[in-house]
Backbone:
């Protein structure tokens, strides 16, 4: 199912399910990420995606327990440019809980890509998921703000610079008073260049 | 009337340092009234204003703010992207003796509400109707916000004024009080608040960084003292002015007097560079990495001769650049080769940035030394700098004549750097903030009575006094000896050196030295085993081979040779399986959960600290 979306500045975009044909795009996109973005994504240093990692991140997407969406921006030449990926994966031992991860190319941070992806991901999330359970770096406030916007959020410190985050999707966080604006993808603290907003 | 929680230091003005930002502007207008000040896009062309003309735009706007009853040091916010009106608004605020609060146009309504409330902003310049709407949604919670002045949005004749309305108010005010602006400017003192910029901390609400006028006027003279810029330079400015890095460039311009072409639209950077042909530009590392990646990829895609030519040209460029840094002259053959390389390849790379770039300034994050060296080979020095909002974005910068890649240079004149016992970088000087807005405890946490600011970054100074940033403190592990260890940097080194590596968890928290748990990539391991004549076996058996251990140890030795003594990995264990989702060591999306790993392998870790 392909969804249409608009970024914060009005840029038109399409969101579609990742399929095995996107393998090379994912590999190349990852190569373009800054060191910090990679670290935020995997909470570890990952110089390149290995074939085993790509198997998991692309080929194992089944649309049932593992939903992955790519956001593609239509450029001036009407060509699609993939700029971000978001995924939810069900925990096998805990079928109502899913992990969540979002990656956005650095130069697209702060433009609403992650927010658009998460919105759509929430709509297309694996059936029966009522809880998101994940870990982020404690300095990744943009991601925490995005997670908080999805529901009641519990945060537990998990060692140096790590937070375990649980979002109860059945308990909306205090409603974002019918504003048309998106939840703070960029925290009020404001990163230098929209640099922190995007990798979760 | 000062709202400063505590003023640890009062800074005397340096020779040539103006007393305030508006004084810098008025001096600049008086010195070079007819030189170009700003260039900005109008439709598909660029228009210019001189300093005198810019002054004529700013003066009535400043008077308009005075007419609205804005008092000295009161906050006026700007919620806009980077554009000429941003600069006019900011200068008008300064000329009214007020202080600017910056708001990113992308900041959400709640956070905008927080910033405007916390700063007590009385007027907001809002770029367009999107920004105005955001303010309207918060209006009920912003009783102190008297007026909104919009650049492009729709005025409502009441709460929302247009820029022309403000100007009209100002002209009327000036008719009655012709010297109102000059008087307001004369009253501004160096320690008065000029700018309030909000930054996020690790916890809690964002904090407003109070930067008085002397911060910016100091940045101006300090930059002038570097002797790299003149009135004849041309800056291309696209950085967000809501951030201190962008603000800093504005202060430098007022002091030195070069023109600035301003356009904050990211998608216009490349065409703008070709149109503006600036002599310098500042940006975060990403912009330079992107140029590098594009060119390298382009050469690779052309393949064959072109790719070989590119490789050769950059090799020659690199040799010449390094010789220049070392103060060596190159021989006639290399010179001839370089001329050819330049004509065929390197000049074309410079052409992508307009062709006239003398140097580039990189800040706000670490620039890869490889990328810096690549630009240098192409004939463009990237001067890497170091600073934070709390130091008005300035503190250290690489010198043009001494480009040491991977370092952020010595401090600028008037700024001191010290490395604390635990490795943290401390800074002192006139660019240091006067404190966090109404947060004396938070201020006391980072600013001591002698004026030293604790940066939260960790680094070291070389013999020549050049600073190298090694890590951010918050991602560091503290050993029982009180030393910080940067796991991310160690992991990166290890994975670069050891082709078998899959995961590495560095362990040191509360221990007296560092150790690591390692997993190997099963495919790479199987390949290695086959290549070295071992019969096929499963992962656990191969990982347990003494030869594998020796191979990994050799990689670790290489890593350790590049680390500080206290960071070295004294011992490690290769796990008999990779981290798994089932055991919660990685999440289903493959995020490593360090704490779970450390807990699961506690006995293995303890073993490395006994005996």
Residues:
């Amino acid at each position: 199912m392909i969804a249409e979306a608009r970024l914060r500045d009005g840029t038109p975009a399409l969101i579609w399910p990742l399929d095995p044909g996107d393998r090379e795009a994912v590999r190349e996109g990852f190569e373009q990420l800054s060191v910090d973005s990679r670290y935020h994504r995997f909470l570890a240093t990952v110089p390149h995606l290995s074939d085993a990692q790509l198997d998991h991140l692309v080929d194992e997407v089944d649309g049932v327990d593992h939903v992955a969406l790519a956001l593609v921006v239509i450029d001036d030449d009407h060509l699609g440019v993939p700029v971000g990926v978001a995924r939810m994966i069900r925990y096998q031992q805990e079928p109502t809980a899913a992990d969540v991860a979002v990656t956005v190319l650095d130069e697209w941070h702060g433009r609403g890509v992650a927010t658009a992806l998460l919105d759509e991901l929430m709509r297309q999330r694996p059936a029966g998921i009522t809880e998101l359970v994940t870990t982020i770096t404690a300095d990744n406030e943009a991601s925490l703000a995005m997670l908080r916007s999805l529901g009641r959020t519990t945060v537990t410190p998990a060692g140096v610079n790590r937070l375990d985050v649980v979002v109860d999707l059945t308990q909306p966080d205090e409603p974002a008073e019918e504003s048309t604006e998106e939840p703070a993808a960029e925290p009020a603290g404001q990163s230098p260049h929209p640099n922190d907003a995007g990798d979760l | 009337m000062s709202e400063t929680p505590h003023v640890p230091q009062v800074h005397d003005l340096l020779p040539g340092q103006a007393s305030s930002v508006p004084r810098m502007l008025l001096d600049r207008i008086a010195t070079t009234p007819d030189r170009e000040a700003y260039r900005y896009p109008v439709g598909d062309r660029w228009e210019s204003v001189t300093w005198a003309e810019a002054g004529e735009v700013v003066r009535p706007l400043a008077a308009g703010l005075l007419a609205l009853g804005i008092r000295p040091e009161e906050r006026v916010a700007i919620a806009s992207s980077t554009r000429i009106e941003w600069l006019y608004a900011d200068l008008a605020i300064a000329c009214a003796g007020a202080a600017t609060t910056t708001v990113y146009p992308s900041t959400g309504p709640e956070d905008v509400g927080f910033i405007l409330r916390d700063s007590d902003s009385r007027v907001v310049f809002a770029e367009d109707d999107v920004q105005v709407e955001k303010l309207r949604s918060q209006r009920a919670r912003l009783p102190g916000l008297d007026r909104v002045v919009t650049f492009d949005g729709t005025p409502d004749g009441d709460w929302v004024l247009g820029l022309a309305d403000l100007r009209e108010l100002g002209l009327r005010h000036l008719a009655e009080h012709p010297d109102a602006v000059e008087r307001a400017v004369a009253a501004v003192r160096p320690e008065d608040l000029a700018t309030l910029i909000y930054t996020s901390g690790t916890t809690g609400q964002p904090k407003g960084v109070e930067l008085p006028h002397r911060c910016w006027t100091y940045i101006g003279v300090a930059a002038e003292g570097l002797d790299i810029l003149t009135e004849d330079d041309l800056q291309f400015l696209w950085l967000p002015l809501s951030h201190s890095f962008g603000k800093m460039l504005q202060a430098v311009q007022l002091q030195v007097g070069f023109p600035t072409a301003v356009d904050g639209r990211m998608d216009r950077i490349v065409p703008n560079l070709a149109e503006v042909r600036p002599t310098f530009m500042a940006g975060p590392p990403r912009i330079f990495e992107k140029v590098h990646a594009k060119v390298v990829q382009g050469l690779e895609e052309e393949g064959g001769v072109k790719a070989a030519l590119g490789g050769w040209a950059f090799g020659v460029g690199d040799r010449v650049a390094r010789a220049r840094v070392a103060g060596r002259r190159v021989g006639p053959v290399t010179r001839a080769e370089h001329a050819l390389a330049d004509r065929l390849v390197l000049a074309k790379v410079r052409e992508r940035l307009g062709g006239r770039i003398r140097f580039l300034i990189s800040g706000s994050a670490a620039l890869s030394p490889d990328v810096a060296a690549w630009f240098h080979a192409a004939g463009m020095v990237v001067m890497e700098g170091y600073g934070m909002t709390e130091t008005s974005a300035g503190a250290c910068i690489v010198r043009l004549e001494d480009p040491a890649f991977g370092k952020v240079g010595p401090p600028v004149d008037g700024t001191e750097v010290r490395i604390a016992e635990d490795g943290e970088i401390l800074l002192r000087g006139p660019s240091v903030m006067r404190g966090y807005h109404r947060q004396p405890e938070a201020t006391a946490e980072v600013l001591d009575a002698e004026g030293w600011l604790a940066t939260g970054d960790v680094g070291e100074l070389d013999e020549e006094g050049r600073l190298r940033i090694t890590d951010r403190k918050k991602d560091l592990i503290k050993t029982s000896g009180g030393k910080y260890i940067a796991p991310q940097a160690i992991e990166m080194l290890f994975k670069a050196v050891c082709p078998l590596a899959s995961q590495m968890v560095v362990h040191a928290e509360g221990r007296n030295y560092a150790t690591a748990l390692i997993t190997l990539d099963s495919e790479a391991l199987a390949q290695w085993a086959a290549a070295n004549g071992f019969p096929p076996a499963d992962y656990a058996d191969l990982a347990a081979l003494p030869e594998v251990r020796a191979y990994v140890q050799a990689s670790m030795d290489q890593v350790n040779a590049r680390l500080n003594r206290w960071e070295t990995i004294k011992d490690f264990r290769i796990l008999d399986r990779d981290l798994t989702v089932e055991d919660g060591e990685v999440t289903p999306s493959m995020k490593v959960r360090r704490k779970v790993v450390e807990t699961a392998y506690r006995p293995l870790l303890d073993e490395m600290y006994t005996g």
Summary: Residues 174-197 of chain A have pLDDT under 50 and may be disordered.
